[in-house]
Automatic annotation (TrEMBL):
The protein's name: ABC transporter permease
Residues of the ABC transmembrane type-1 domain: 97-302
Coiled-coil residue spans: none
Keywords: Cell membrane, Membrane, Transmembrane, Transmembrane helix, Transport
Organism: Microvirga puerhi
Amino acid sequence: MSRILLSRLIDLVVVLFGVSIIVFLMIRLIPGDAVAIMLGANTEITPERMAELNSRVGLDKPIVQQYLVWAGAALRGDFGTSLWTGRPVATEIITNLWPTLELTFLSLLIGAVLAVPVGCWMAQTRGSGMDVAMRIGAIAGLTIPSFWLGIVLILLFSAFVPGFSSLGYVPFSEDPFGNLQRMLLPSIALALPILANLSRLVRSAMLDALGQDYVRTARAKGLSERTVVYKHALRNALIPFLTSVGIMTGYLLGGAIVVEQVFAIPGLGRLILGAIAERNYPLIQATILVVTAGFVLVNFVVDFLYIVVDPRVRA
């Protein structure tokens, strides 16, 4: 197992290195002159001022040298200074990180936890009217955009539950009830496509598992249907489920960017969009790198769980 984990760690480092290069190069393809934008519309833009600011932010150096300086500092936890606020980029990210993590966690919790019993039920009732209805509902859940669902939920709750707080963000430590109340609707909006996708996956995997010889043997021994389904069949059905959960986490991180805008949540999504509009190089690079690193780390954890659940991988 240690050899497999070491191999996964090496892959993780290689992926992060490749992503850092891509992020560093891609943001420099954004149209517009970052230095002119930083100087602002109310400032007289002269070649001297542009050259001075270029030198101050390091944009006058060769691009390879720029990358090496940035990557070396990032490895030490120094992502530079925000070009607009003057605050350390790491501080900006930490300030906006928790709302995004909480939204992602709650959405994944709702979607993944509900997907297992729903998928098992769909597999057990295969061919019935309930199975068909739930499959149609799952397809609908996959096609509904999260931001549109979020807007509909806001309208519905404002009409039928006027006192319900659905916009903004309150830290859990300050007001637990207010925090969960404001995070409920965005979590549901993000979780619905996850629930629809994973429940269909669990249904398919369960149908395959229930047709295996070891399941027939378990039934022949007189075990209850509940034991057969949830103890024997579900263990093998969870293998593709775990893999998809890692992929869905990346989807949630991306979807949170738009949903945070809809619900006015001050998370990484709003931070990234603001940084792109301002051409804030250090903040864009660091934020995208942190989000990508989170996605890669989640997949590393999923790989580890995959090894634990499926002994064949350790062979």
